[in-house]
Design goal:
The protein has 399 residues and is of the alpha+beta class. It is built from 12 helices and 5 strands.
């Protein structure tokens, strides 16, 4: 409903809708990274401790190495968590390594390193399930207090006590907010699909009303013409002329009713893909708000057909348990393109070589000036469809 908003409000609404979604281009990636960087202020004390020359050469080298590994893990996990999180036990192992590094560095190099526990608490709040975060955050705070006691600097430890404790719990709240935003986006996609179904019902009612009257009139006049034909051919001819006019008008009415209806819309297909994959018990990652600026109607229709075919194959033939749909803008040697990528972890079907569906998609995309790539992966199947973008302000790669 952003059409009722002022331009600045619409832009703000768009930014809010991107919460919890992976960056679509380099600019969004930089903005997400800038949001993370200010939190590195707590590294000032460890860096100052290492540059002050209070430790031996071996301890200083080990400190720099441990700090680099710690910060690298933190930035990687938190940045990915804002878009497409790591799956499996990668996050648990990363947090465990961070926890061990914080304890070892704080116990061996002194109280200047207590600030590392702030980042461990953030990681616990952002990555772990709530029931796990609720006890790992206090455990991290207790480890920080124990390190301060070991360094004979409980004053500094007490100064960070509330920071470590509260920042972890605040991250759990932010994480729930992001999860709620994602659920709302999916709900909106479902509503869009329901709206599309309602539009189909509306069209069916309109066609019934339009054709019901016209076909009844054609039937009546045909019967009259049949009865008049032997004795009154001139009157029968007038009835046939009326039948022609009614049928032509009915054809015009039907064309007006379905104008723009048969052309598939990418937003509706994305919403339908989310619903279809969820119904098939396939874990789905589907963008809810496609940016179709500079995309021609033929290009959008071609991508919509490609998405429909790909999702149909995933649901019916692949046996996949997860499917990812991405919509990116890229700069290629042939110009700017909008790229649709559908990747699943299934078997890819049992057929050998391209089927009729892929052949038809290739022809549709070629008519729109686009291309199609499809093939099996080591585990799964990937389909990539591209259509050109019209001239406009250049953008960077969406990778």
């Amino acid at each position: 409903m952003t059409e009722d908003l002022r331009p600045d409000e619409g832009a703000r609404a768009e930014r809010l809708m991107r919460i919890g979604a992976p960056p679509r281009n380099r600019g969004e990636a930089i903005r997400k990274l800038v949001w993370v960087l200010p939190w590195l202020v707590f590294l000032a004390s460890p860096v100052g401790d290492l540059t002050a020359g209070h430790h031996t050469m071996g301890a200083t080298v080990a400190g720099w190495a441990g700090l680099a590994v710690f910060v690298g893990i933190y930035l990687t996990i938190v940045f990915r968590q804002m878009g497409r999180p790591f799956r499996g036990g990668i996050v648990s192992v990363a947090v465990a390594v961070q926890w061990v590094l914080a304890v070892v560095l704080a116990f061996s190099l002194g109280s200047s390193w207590l600030g590392l526990f702030v980042y461990v608490s953030v990681m616990c709040g952002v990555t772990f399930p709530l029931r796990v975060a609720y006890w790992t955050i206090p455990a991290t705070t207790a480890a920080m207090m124990l390190a301060g006691w070991h360094a004979h600097n409980l004053d500094e430890a007490w100064g960070l006590f509330l920071v470590v404790l509260l920042v972890g719990y605040s991250m759990t709240g932010i994480r729930q907010l992001v999860a709620t935003t994602i659920e709302l986006r999916k709900a909106r996609a479902t509503v869009a699909q329901l709206a599309a179904n309602e539009e189909r019902l509306r069209l069916a009612r309109d066609l019934h009303d339009l054709l019901g009257h016209s076909l009844s009139l054609i039937t009546l006049k045909s019967e009259l013409a049949g009865r008049m034909l032997p004795d009154h051919p001139d009157k029968a001819a007038r009835q046939v002329s009326d039948i022609e006019q009614v049928s032509r008008q009915a054809l015009v009415d039907v064309r007006e009713a379905v104008t723009g209806y048969r052309r598939p819309r990418l937003a509706a297909e994305l919403a339908g893909a989310q619903v279809a994959l969820t119904a098939a018990a396939v874990t789905a990652e589907v963008p809810a708000d496609p940016d179709l600026t500079d995309v021609s109607e033929d290009g959008e229709a071609a991508l919509a057909w490609a998405l429909r075919e790909a999702i149909t194959n995933v649901v019916r033939h692949s046996g996949a348990t997860a499917c990812t749909v991405e919509l990116l803008r890229r700069q290629t040697l042939d110009g700017r393109v909008l790229e649709l990528a559908v990747e699943d972890n299934g078997s890819g079907g049992s057929g050998k070589g391209p089927g009729n569906g892929l052949t038809g998609l290739t022809e549709r995309l070629e008519k729109a000036g686009g291309t199609l790539e499809a093939g099996r992966l080591k585990r799964g199947f990937r389909l990539v469809a591209r259509v050109p973008l019209s001239s406009g302000m250049a953008v960077g790669s969406g990778a």
